[in-house]
């Protein structure tokens, strides 16, 4: 499954990247995040792996994140593995004009097991969840004092 999501953020790209590239900020715009544990590699750099634990509907959702490409300020790509799901996210940042950043994500999912059967029914939920996270980041970035 593939899809693209995008949003405009009313900040210069340099500020968007500063906020996006900080693991300290993750829990501020991803409220379900319970923990982030660095596993290997140089933190925040290509090849680094981390474990993220989210509060899921049926217990903890555990993912392993790997940074695949980091060429800031233009792009930052990651992959995520969890039970039955592999996900690649390509984040692209473009300054449309001074003080306005376009953030586009290219999302690719591969499913195994029971999840393969659910894909036709859940695609919209994945797209919706991506947009929720992007909207939360935009709100946080534009109004950090409220988070």
Topology:
Elements (H helix, E strand, L loop, with lengths): L1 E8 L3 H8 L5 H4 L3 E8 L8 E8 L2 E13 L3 E8 L2 E13 L2 E12 L2 H29 L5
Antiparallel strand pairs: 1-7, 2-3, 3-4, 4-5, 5-6, 6-7
Mean pLDDT: 95
What is the string of helix and strand elements? EHHEEEEEEH
Distance between the termini: 33 Å
- β-strand amount: over 45%
Main sheet summary: 7 strands, antiparallel
- Quantity of strands, as a count: 7
Integer count of domains: 1
**Overall form:** globular
Which range best describes the helical content: under 10%, 10-25%, 25-40%, 40-55%, 55-70% or over 70%? 25-40%
CATH class: Alpha Beta
Give the count of helical stretches.
3
Instruction: Specify the CATH homologous superfamily.
Output: START domain
Give the oligomer, counting copies of the same chain as homo and different chains as hetero.
Answer: single chain
CATH topology: Alpha-D-Glucose-1,6-Bisphosphate, Chain A, domain 4
């Amino acid at each position: 499954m593939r899809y693209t999501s995008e949003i405009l953020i009313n900040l210069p790209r340099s500020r968007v990247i500063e906020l996006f590239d900080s693991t300290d900020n993750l829990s501020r715009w991803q409220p379900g995040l319970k923990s982030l544990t660095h596993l290997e590699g140089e933190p925040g750099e290509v090849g680094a792996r981390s474990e993220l634990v989210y509060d899921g509907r049926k217990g903890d959702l555990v993912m392993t994140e790997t940074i695949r490409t980091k060429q800031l300020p233009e792009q930052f790509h990651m992959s995520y593995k969890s039970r039955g799901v592999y996900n690649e996210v390509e984040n692209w940042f473009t300054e449309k004009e001074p003080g306005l950043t376009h953030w586009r994500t290219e999302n690719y999912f591969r499913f195994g097991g029971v999840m393969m059967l659910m894909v036709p029914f859940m695609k919209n939920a994945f797209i919706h969840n991506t947009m929720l996270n992007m909207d939360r980041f935009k709100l946080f970035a534009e109004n950090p004092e409220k988070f």
